[in-house]
């Protein structure tokens, strides 16, 4: 354990110290959907939560962010659709490039609303709106001002099918979203995110609040969804990352320790800290 | 309290043991006495409520059950000096309806009939067939009982008239109109302010603005009454005058508008509390879908906090229904069965004020009538208050 | 797949711009409404201050013995010349004069006899003025006459030229025999009823009444709007608030402690809770009916300060209970556990921990309750507080002539004007004031607003300023306390 920096020195010191310097990010051969470049993030109270993150996001692949609590993985994920903008005085530095247009997702000139319409998010706790199942899925279309009923019907069905929920709810579309079970609610939230055809779908520990059977269904869904959308998933569960992710990033104390193809990271990590984490010696 | 109970029950036994050992029974007696005193204070609110209900009922019940004696005077016949009773149509003990003939007279100048000015039992007739009586003299007493029909069907409230009328509807119409005008102001304004405070305002600015807005509800209502009568009413007269509508100095419109301003904080503050009680995940879920602030507020937060907002509306209604001084000053105190806000009309509360301004004889039917009206008002506000309380309680448990 | 066409982006951006425009419009409306609401409060206050300013600041002179001015009263200043006391009258103005008769007298000494002064400072009957013939002692006043040409607006609204005469009277000798001269103050403004006091150019000192300067706050209500004030109203408000607080605070705090610390979780407790919430929503006029039906007619406490204080005390009781409960609830249970764990009894825990820690919260609630009670009108109207109150409740301790002896003296005075004034005695009447009739600020305001004359509305505005300043001040204090409290507590 002596190899790991004592957390007390981290909180009192300025920049956190890692016992092992981060492994250089490897170039990946898959086409890219996004690229994180020298990304820093500061919370309103001045705390720097992310330090110089560099990371590629492969198009139509699943990228998993893993690491112990407080390592900054959720903070990084929420930067992709500018959720931090909801709370004033949070500050981004660096760039997150969306390809192929080569636009900077965190650039102040870009409207966060536009980004959120292109980069959707599914949360840890299922958070359906207090509306019917149908209206929950149609929400994204309605806020865009879509009024064509036929079109909305079509998209709702497609999204629900995409989220593997259609068969379970097709006769009860008018029922409240709260009436569903936890796993169904989470799939409803996925359908809601899919209905607007996002380019990237962010998952923030989507199965943390679910039972094993519902978890399995969501995991299958994620693998299925990557055919149509780029996925970034934060997970606490290393097995889950191993099962569903193509690429995995291990983060610690706000830094990216190692990024590689999932089987590479799990079988042959190049950084000793990654190995310690994966073998459960801390976390 | 409940989460404490295991801890307190164990310590109680320890204390008990200690006391027995030291023999300090005085301590335990003292504890008991103090708990008794606190209990009495605790149930005082129930006693007060019972007191209010008993007082209202103790005057309302006699209002409907104790008859009042109505005196009827002999009619006037042009050209005649005196009248002679020629026939008693309704003898003592019979029941007559209002307007029914009671006594027939004859005189050199012609005959006349005395009719009942109120329904009831004939108590006394001061004369018999053949008696000569002067005109406009007390002749007949009728024992009149105010019926629920008089109270709920009549549309005039005039307890101190010679021919008293107790139609509560003319007061309810005034109460309803002023309340509706007030809600017409307070609900849209209060709701928009609530949304603005919860979604648009910086939290530290909100910390200042919200209590400042609540000051609107702290202004004494009699000061609002001054404002309504002497400032708003002339302005509204001028404004409506431009549309060719003339309006008197006393009108329900001005009273209602000012009352609306007064209840804005009730709507805004409670609605804002309800909206902020919506879990953060739901709010973030909406923003993550690319919704704007107003879309998040109207499409997610308002539906999610609907019960809280409804209870805020209901409490505001209860407040408006019971408000007294603004309407007593600015809407006038003359009962008027109308829903037209440009008219003058009394609300239930204003009618009570109006009645107590004069010196009502205790034990008179007019005195009891204000308690019957008060009971009516109490029941209406109680209905809204309980509804608001239950709805609020439900939403508190929802998250 | 991720090839997003440019068209789609452009379309997206235009609809986002549309939505954000609506968002901005909504934001402006919301901000505007907040400002407008606060502005209403500001306008209300400023308007009251403007309308009430003259009433608030103006002063007038009144007789110290509170008797009104007579029709022929004159006002002057006491001056001392050696051992002699004299009365220097203010210049007397003569109006509606016959210019032809008076003009020859201008600049000369004139005498005034018999019917002379009208109301103070408003002039006097010119027919009583004439040149001095014979001894000066025959005249009531001697002085010089001056004439001025003035433009006056007459009743038809036309401007007319008129002559105004002013009489500057010589100082009159004051007969101080039978009076302790040390009680006279040089320079003191006094009023004299010339009908009784003036004889042969001298004035009897015992008929001189000193004048005091009065203002809105130390005047009783009056039929004359210029002289009407809020003395009895603010004293009434103060005394009633005393009773209200004495009733509501101990009872409310005790009830709050019982409900939070002692009450078992059963149906009775649930009933009490619903009941308190409902009691807080009972319209104030209903409390008035309670006061009238129960206190005035059944218990028989009369239309008095005690009835008013009791009624308002019960009215604000729910506010005190609710704020006490909130204050207690914010104390973490660890504190109770620590105290009980050290062997303290329940009451000791409450006495030494719960009460002291919740005190600021209770104080805040009590201030809010006080501000609510100060502004309440309806419950007091019903118990007949709308009568004309031009007296103060009797103080608990008074040094005065006993009433019976005073009546005897008044009788004796008719036969013998120099009857001895009876001795004053100490009176202890600690609870008399509770039984006194009263008026309060909001009632006074209500009464003045209800008057048709515009002048009374200015008085109403002035009373409104006082009332609003009181309630807003108290609420502001409560808000500040609550804010301080929230910042200070860190458990």
Describe this structure in words.
The complex is a heterotrimer of chains A (283), B (399) and C (491). Chain A has helices at 7-12, 73-80, 112-118, 133-143, 149-162, 166-169, 182-194, 212-225, 238-244, 262-267, 272-278, and strands spanning 32-42, 48-58, 62-66, 91-98, 103-104, 119-122, 200-204, 230-234, 247-252, 255-261. With 283 residues, chain A is of the alpha/beta class. Chain A has one domain (7-28, 60-75, 108-278): 3-Layer(aba) Sandwich (Rossmann fold), CATH 3.40.50. In chain A, strand 7, helix 8 and strand 8 (230-234) form a beta-alpha-beta unit. The longest helix of chain A has 14 residues, at 149-162. Residues 1-14 of chain A have low confidence and may be disordered. Chain B has three domains: 2-65, no CATH class; 68-144, OB fold (Dihydrolipoamide Acetyltransferase, E2P), CATH 2.40.50; 169-398, MetI-like fold. Chain B contains 13 helices and ten strands. In chain B, strands 1-8-6-3 form a four-stranded antiparallel β-sheet, with no helix packed on it. In chain B, strands 5-4-2-7 form a four-stranded antiparallel β-sheet, with no helix packed on it. The longest helix of chain B is centred in the first third of the chain and has 41 residues, at 25-65. Chain C is of the alpha+beta class. In chain C, helix 4 (231-262) packs parallel to helix 7 and helix 12 packs antiparallel against helix 13. Chains in contact: A-B, A-C, B-C. Chains B and C meet through helix 1, helix 2, helix 4, helix 5 and helix 6 of B and helix 1, helix 4, helix 5, helix 6 and helix 7 of C.
What's this model, at a glance?
The complex is a heterotrimer of chains A (283), B (399) and C (491). With 283 residues, chain A is α/β, with parallel strands linked by helices.
Distinctive features:
heterotrimer, A: alpha/beta, 6-stranded mixed sheet, 4-stranded antiparallel sheet, 11 helices, 23% strand, disordered N terminus, B: 399 residues, alpha+beta, OB fold (Dihydrolipoamide Acetyltransferase, E2P), MetI-like fold, 13 helices, 10 strands
| Strands of chain A, count | 10
Which range does the strand content of chain B fall in? 5-15%
User: How many domains comprise the coordinates of chain A?
Assistant: 1
What is the annotated CATH architecture of the largest domain in chain B?
Orthogonal Bundle
Write the layout of secondary structure elements.
The complex is a heterotrimer of chains A (283), B (399) and C (491).
Chain A: H1 7-12, E1 32-42, E2 48-58, E3 62-66, H2 73-80, E4 91-98, E5 103-104, H3 112-118, E6 119-122, H4 133-143, H5 149-162, H6 166-169, H7 182-194, E7 200-204, H8 212-225, E8 230-234, H9 238-244, E9 247-252, E10 255-261, H10 262-267, H11 272-278
Helix pairs in contact in A: 4-5, 4-7, 5-7, 7-8
Chain B: H1 5-22, H2 25-65, E1 68-73, E2 82-88, E3 95-96, E4 101-106, E5 112-115, E6 120-125, E7 132-134, E8 138-144, H3 148-153, E9 157-158, E10 165-166, H4 169-200, H5 203-214, H6 221-242, H7 252-276, H8 280-288, H9 293-304, H10 306-322, H11 325-330, H12 348-357, H13 365-398
Antiparallel strand pairs in B: 1-8, 2-4, 2-7, 3-6, 4-5, 6-8, 9-10
Chain C: H1 6-57, E1 59-63, E2 74-81, E3 84-89, E4 92-94, H2 99-102, E5 109-112, E6 129-131, E7 141-153, E8 159-169, E9 172-175, E10 189-192, H3 194-197, E11 198-199, E12 202-204, E13 208-215, H4 231-262, H5 267-279, H6 284-299, H7 305-329, H8 333-341, H9 346-375, H10 378-381, E14 397-400, H11 403-415, E15 425-428, H12 441-450, H13 454-488
Parallel strand pairs in C: 9-12
Antiparallel strand pairs in C: 1-13, 2-3, 2-10, 3-9, 4-8, 5-6, 5-7, 7-8, 10-13, 11-12, 14-15
């Amino acid at each position: 354990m002596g190899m790991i920096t004592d957390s007390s020195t981290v909180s009192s010191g300025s920049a956190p110290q890692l016992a092992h310097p981060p492994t250089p990010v490897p170039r990946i051969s898959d086409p890219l959907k996004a690229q994180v470049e020298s990304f820093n993030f500061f919370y309103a109270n001045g705390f720097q939560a992310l330090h110089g993150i560099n990371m590629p996001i492969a198009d139509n692949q699943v990228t998993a962010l893993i690491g112990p609590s407080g390592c900054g993985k959720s903070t990084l994920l929420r930067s992709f659709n500018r959720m931090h903008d909801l709370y004033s005085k949070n500050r981004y530095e660096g760039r997150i490039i969306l390809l192929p247009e080569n636009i900077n997702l965190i650039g102040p000139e870009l409207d966060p609303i536009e980004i959120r319409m292109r980069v959707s998010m599914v949360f840890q706790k299922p958070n359906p709106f207090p509306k019917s199942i149908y209206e929950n899925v149609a929400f994204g279309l309605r806020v865009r001002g879509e009024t064509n009923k036929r079109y909305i019907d079509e998209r709702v069905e497609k999204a629900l099918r995409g989220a593997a929920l259609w068969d379970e709810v097709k006769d009860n579309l008018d029922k409240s979203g709260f009436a569903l079970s936890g796993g169904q609610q989470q799939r409803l939230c996925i359908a809601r995110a899919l209905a607007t055809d996002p380019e990237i779908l962010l998952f923030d520990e989507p199965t943390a609040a679910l039972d094993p059977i519902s978890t399995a269904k969501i995991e299958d869904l994620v693998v299925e969804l990557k055919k149509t959308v780029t996925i970034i998933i934060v997970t606490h569960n290393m097995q889950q990352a191993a099962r569903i992710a193509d690429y995995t990033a291990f983060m610690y104390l706000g830094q990216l320790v190692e990024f590689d193809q999932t089987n590479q990271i799990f079988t042959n990590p190049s950084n000793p800290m990654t190995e310690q984490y994966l073998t459960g010696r801390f976390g | 309290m409940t989460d404490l109970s295991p801890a307190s029950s164990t310590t109680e036994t320890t204390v008990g043991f200690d006391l027995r050992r030291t023999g300090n029974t005085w301590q335990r007696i003292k504890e008991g006495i103090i708990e008794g005193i606190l209990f009495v204070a605790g149930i005082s609110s129930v006693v007060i409520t019972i007191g209010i209900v008993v007082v209202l009922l103790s005057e309302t019940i006699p209002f409907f059950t104790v008859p009042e004696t109505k005196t009827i005077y002999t009619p006037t016949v042009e050209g005649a000096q005196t009248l002679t009773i020629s026939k008693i149509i309704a003898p003592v003990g019979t029941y007559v309806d209002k307007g029914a003939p009671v006594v027939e007279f004859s005189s050199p100048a012609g005959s006349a009939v005395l009719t009942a000015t109120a329904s009831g039992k004939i108590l006394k007739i001061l004369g018999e067939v053949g008696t000569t009586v002067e005109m406009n003299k007390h002749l007949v007493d009728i024992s009149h009982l105010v019926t629920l029909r008089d109270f709920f069907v009549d549309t005039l409230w005039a307890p101190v008239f010679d021919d008293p009328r107790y139609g509560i509807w003319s007061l309810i119409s005034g109460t309803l109109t002023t309340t509706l005008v007030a809600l017409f102001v307070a609900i849209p304004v209060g709701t928009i302010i609530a949304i603005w405070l919860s979604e648009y305002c910086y939290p530290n600015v909100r910390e200042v603005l919200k209590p400042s807005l609540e000051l609107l509800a702290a202004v004494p209502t009699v000061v609002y009454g001054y404002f309504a009568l002497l400032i708003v009413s002339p302005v509204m007269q001028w404004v409506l005058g431009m549309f060719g509508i003339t309006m008197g100095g006393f009108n329900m419109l001005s009273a209602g508008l000012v009352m609306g301003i007064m209840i804005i904080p009730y709507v805004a503050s409670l609605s804002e509390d309800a909206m902020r009680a919506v879990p953060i995940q739901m709010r973030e879920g909406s923003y993550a879908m690319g919704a704007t602030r107003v879309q998040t507020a109207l499409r997610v937060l308002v539906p999610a906090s609907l019960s809280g907002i409804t209870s805020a509306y209901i409490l505001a209604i209860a407040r408006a229904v019971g408000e007294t001084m603004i309407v007593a000053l600015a809407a006038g105190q003359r009962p008027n069965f109308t829903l037209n806000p440009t008219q003058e009309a009394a609300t239930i509360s204003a009618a009570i004020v109006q009645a107590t301004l004069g010196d009502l004889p205790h034990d008179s039917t007019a005195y009891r009538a204000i308690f019957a009206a008060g009971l009516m008002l109490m029941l209406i506000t109680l209905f809204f208050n309980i509804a608001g309380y239950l709805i609020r309680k439900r939403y508190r448990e929802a998250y | 797949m991720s090839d997003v066409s440019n068209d789609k982006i452009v379309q997206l951006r235009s609809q986002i711009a549309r939505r954000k425009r609506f968002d901005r419009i909504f934001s402006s409306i919301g901000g505007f409404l907040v400002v407008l609401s606060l502005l209403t409060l500001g306008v209300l206050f400023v308007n009251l201050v403007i309308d009430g300013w003259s009433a608030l600041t103006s002063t007038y002179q009144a007789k110290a013995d509170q008797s009104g001015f007579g029709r022929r009263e004159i006002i002057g200043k006491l001056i001392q010349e050696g051992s002699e006391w004299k009365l220097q009258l203010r210049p007397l103005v003569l109006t509606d004069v016959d210019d032809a008769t008076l003009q020859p007298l201008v600049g000369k000494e004139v005498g005034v006899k018999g019917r002379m002064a009208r109301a103070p400072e408003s002039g006097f009957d010119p027919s009583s003025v004439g040149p001095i013939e014979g001894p000066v002692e025959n005249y009531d006043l001697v002085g010089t006459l001056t004439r001025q040409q003035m433009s006056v607006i007459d009743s038809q609204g036309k401007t007319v030229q008129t002559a105004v005469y002013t009489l500057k009277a010589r100082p009159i000798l004051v007969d101080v025999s039978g009076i302790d001269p040390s009680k006279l103050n040089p320079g003191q403004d006094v009023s004299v009823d010339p009908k009784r006091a003036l004889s042969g150019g001298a004035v009897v000192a015992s008929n001189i009444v000193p004048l005091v300067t009065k203002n809105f706050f130390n005047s009783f209500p009056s039929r004359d709007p210029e002289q009407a004030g809020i003395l009895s109203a603010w004293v009434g408000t103060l005394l009633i608030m005393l009773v209200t607080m004495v009733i509501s605070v101990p009872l409310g705090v005790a009830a709050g402690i019982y409900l939070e610390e002692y009450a078992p979780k059963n149906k009775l407790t649930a009933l009490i809770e619903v009941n308190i919430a409902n009691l807080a929503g009972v319209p104030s006029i209903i409390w008035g009916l309670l006061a009238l039906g129960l206190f005035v007619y059944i218990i028989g406490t009369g239309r008095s300060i005690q009835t008013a204080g009791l009624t308002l005390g019960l009215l604000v009781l729910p506010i005190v209970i609710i704020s006490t409960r909130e204050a207690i609830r914010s104390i973490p249970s660890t504190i109770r556990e620590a105290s009980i764990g050290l062997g303290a009894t329940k009451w000791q825990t409450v006495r030494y921990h719960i009460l002291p820690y919740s005190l600021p919260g209770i104080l805040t609630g009590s201030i809010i309750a006080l501000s609510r009670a100060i502004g309440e009108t309806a419950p007091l109207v019903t118990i007949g507080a709308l009568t004309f109150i031009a007296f103060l409740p009797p103080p608990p301790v008074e040094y005065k002539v006993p009433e019976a002896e005073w009546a005897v003296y008044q009788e004796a005075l008719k036969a013998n004007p120099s009857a001895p004034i009876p001795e004053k005695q100490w009176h202890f009447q600690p609870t008399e004031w509770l039984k006194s009739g009263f008026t309060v600020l909001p009632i006074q305001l209500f009464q003045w607003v209800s008057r048709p004359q515009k002048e009374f509305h200015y008085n109403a505005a002035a009373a409104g300023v006082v009332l609003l300043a009181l309630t807003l001040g108290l609420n502001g204090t409560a808000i500040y306390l609550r804010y301080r409290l929230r910042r200070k507590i860190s458990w």
